[in-house]
């Protein structure tokens, strides 16, 4: 994994779902991270735990803002996707352990 991608993941891990005490990366809400170093651009595909999520507006913005803090990133194209829908199976083992699942 590239150093830049590791930094992106590190920034994403600072963001927590307000209803579940686990960061959104471990929750499995991030479906894709593509880095274009030449254009200093990042493509993120993410979802939410449900379409009615109370942070549907703010959570994607937090992801974008955190990634833009990284030196060398000038643009973040964030797409909110609903297919495939999020399920508990998308969570990391660490997240499942933390939530006793």
List the helices and strands and how they pair.
Elements: H1 3-12, E1 30-36, E2 41-46, H2 58-68, E3 75-80, H3 93-98
Parallel strand pairs: 2-3
Antiparallel strand pairs: 1-2
Provide tags for this entry.
101 residues; alpha+beta; 3-stranded mixed sheet; globular
H and E string:
HEEHEH
Helix content: 25-40%
Strand content: 15-25%
Distance between the termini: 29 Å
Q: How would you classify the quaternary structure?
A: single chain
Low-confidence regions: none
* Strand arrangement across the biggest beta sheet: 1-2-3
Largest sheet: 3 strands, mixed
| Alpha-beta content class | alpha+beta
Tally of separate helices: 3
**Mass-distribution shape:** globular
Task: Describe what this molecule looks like in 3D.
With 101 residues, the protein is α+β, with helices and mostly antiparallel strands. It is 27% helix and 19% strand. It contains three helices and three strands; from the N terminus they run αββαβα. Strands 1-2-3 form a three-stranded mixed β-sheet, covered by helices on one side. β1 and β2 (41-46) form a beta hairpin. It is globular, with a radius of gyration of 13 Å.
Summarize the structure.
This protein is of the alpha+beta class and 101 residues long. Helix content is 27%, strand content 19%.
